[in-house]
Amino acid sequence: MKALKAQLKLRAQRQTKLMRALRKSLELKARANRTAGIRQGDILAFTTLRNELVRLPYFLDYYRAQGVRHFLMVDNGSDDGTTEYLEGQKDVSLWVTGASYKASCFGVDWLNHLQWRYGAGHWTLVVDVDEFLVYPFCDTRPLHALTDWLESQGRRSFSAMLLDMYPKGPVTAHPYASGQNPFEIARWFDACNYSIKRNGKLQNLWIQGGVRARAFHGDRPEQAPALNKTPLVHWSRKYAYVSSTHMLLPRGLNKVYDDNGGEQASGVLLHAKFLDTIVAKAREELVRGQHYAGSREYVAYDRGLQDQGDLWCDFSTEYINWRQLEILGLMSKGDWA
Amino acid sequence: MNTALRPAPAAGTSSLGIVMLCHTALHRAAQVARFWLAADCPVVIHVDRAVSDAQMDAFRQDLGDHPLLRFSPRFRCEWGTWPIVAATQAASEQMLQEFAQVEHVLLTSGACIPLRPAAELLDWLDTRRDVDFIESVSIEHAPWIKGGLSEERFTLYFPLSWKRHKWAFDMLVDLQRRFGIGRDVPRPLQPHMGSQWWCLSRKTLQGILNHPKRARYDRYFKGTWIPDESYFQTMVRMVSDRIESRSLTLVKFDRNGRPNLFYDDHLQLLRRSDCFVARKLWPDAQGLYDFFLSDQPARETPIDPQPAKIDRYFELAAKQRSDGRAGLYMQSRFPLDDTATAKTAAPYSVFCGFQQLFRNFDFWLGQTANCRVHGHVFAPEKVEFHGGAKVYHGAISNSAALRDYNPRMFLANLIWATRGERQCFSYNSRDTMTSDLNWFMATDRNAQISVISGCFILPLFRGEYKVDDVLGHIGWLQRREQDFIAILQSKWAAADIRVWTLAEFLEDPQRYLSQTVGAAFPDVGPAALTGLPEILSLDGFDEYLAHLRNLGLPPVLLQDYKR
After folding, report:
1. Which CATH code fits B2-322?
2. Given an 8 Å threshold on Cβ–Cβ distance, is A194 in contact with B324?
3. How confident is the model over B83-107, as pLDDT tens digits?
4. Model pTM?
5. pLDDT digits 0-9 by tens, A320-334
6. Are the Cβ atoms of A259 and B332 closer than 8 angstroms?
């Protein structure tokens, strides 16, 4: 009885989430809708962004090379030419909105709607412009080899934890140039300082740690940002992201881990946050206050990056490739041989 | 591409016929069919009836007309059901009837690819005219069966498709088991099983297809489960006396009994195979199709076949999925407490009380065992990493708050990040000692926990404290140590545990210490262990304990202490 009640509650939560997405979709204005060109079986990427012109060329090319066929993007009030740039891309459908990022659950509502509308039946990838997916064999096999295999295994979702990358020395020392691989600069990461807890209600794992916990949340670890993500999902109209891409409903989609000792296949989202662009971003976000928990993350960056400057430490690890991440135990190929 | 398909002279027809079962990725099947046709091998293709007419037409058009190409009657082949066998029978019959030169028939699928030049296979078969290559293992000796049912495949009724009615299928199996319903295998059939993909000689195949009791046997096999892995495998035993029980087709199954797919990056692995055909390729593995369908395999110097290498590769992957890497906690591996693997990645040593009893115990241990020894990594102020490091391997911070947010992950991380170097640290009741962490270590078979109980008092005894002021504190420390020891002595403890009272330990410190260190570091010789670290003075400790007792706090853990 209790279990049934919990089930019904989750169901209600999911439906609320979907209704909310529908309501929030009124805030979106189609600027370039090229979704008619989407074909069956195409892998679709969904992104919310604001003033990211400098990052876009590399971002789009990275995912095009992996085999993403169409990008569905929500531009939240850019004024640096992002909108115009995206409008000119043949494989991008663009919506614009000036509404509050915060009030749309940090973009989740907008994207839930677009996924509901265009993503059903497709493998959908929800990533920010500073997140770069690395999956097993990504150097030799395209993304749809992975999705084909996941499907054959009866899996609907694929996890890729967020791995914060950072440069050696002050973040401002090496300016990022448009089109450049950000990981030429932000080449380093924390290999083994992650805390994992299980969230009983939604069955997802709650991962915190990495450089952000080490450098900014050493005295308030519970406030360190969540790093667990499930960005790749074989979408259905019944699905909804709950908070960013950390959690999904129905909760079976969150069960991306094996709890009996084995390893499921998983990937990593390399996070190119700590480039010189973050200083201006932190300032802007402080003024806008549109980010999670009163933008406290950005308060911490603004302070932290000024005070100490260097995120690098003696035990930072330099990024090589996915096999390295696999050996370190940050991701796994499971039995995808 | 069709230009390669010039009608071959009938006289050049080779002695190997290819039967191909196709249902998806028909463009790939066409490519492979062309490969065999180019080698003058007759090809009979079965296309699943589920394939639409439009797709079928396109496929036919793609292949064009060829004197050595035939299409066989189409069946709807559902996994694990009889029509797969029926389709194979029909195609084989057609092959034997229409191509008189054919001496061997190779059964392949549309997702198979030849691994070696056709000429090599033809020559090889030429010297083995009457041999039948079919994996045929008696069901009593087939440990590799995946999917639960082995013998029961032959003795129960299976009226439903497992793919479409999983629940009802399982239910029926259960019911039949419960009520002892079953059927007999018609004599003299001896059930055998094996890979679906075979290469049989004309004589044998004819023997099976024209068997006088074929109708009776067919009827029986229609009711078994997965007959495609048992029909020919069983029948062949009655008509052939030259069976080589192995398949010429390389297939690696995953844990669910599905064939693993091959991708471009498997090219070098596939070249090591001793098989002639591989199944099954990912349809977009362009590199593999380009390589194996070209004349490249013929031109390149052959590699020594090492099939064990391929087996090993896929076994490792299967093991990673089922067992994982012990001691790893990550986004896609998060074992519950009662799983079989060790809780941490490598052995480590926990010392309770040693640091308090001996002068510079950590330094002594580091020198003796030649390793880096930490202080109290769970100290309340900060993590006391070796050498006072602020950050350690894996970028683990020395912040106590970060550690205490998730102590067991902190420990698991430390052990994982330093694999290959044994970790040693001190731990006592003054530290952040949660019962969760205590249980974690006590039930971890990688932990070596050595406790000299009661030593937590020594720093207070030596310090300039008035007993009255720290009485409550001592009581608190004692309770914590008692709890810890109770956990260590519980029946669930799996660690390598040694507990002494201080009095016991002082009876022969040399022996106990060398025992402990020797167990952790087998390489350290007894000679190195003879030099005992200095025991700090215990003068006046009796009186101190007596005083404690008189104040109403019996030092339970030290009750046998007398000097």
Report:
1. 3.90.550
2. no
3. 999 999 999 999 999 999 999 999 9
4. 0.90
5. 999 999 999 999 999
6. no
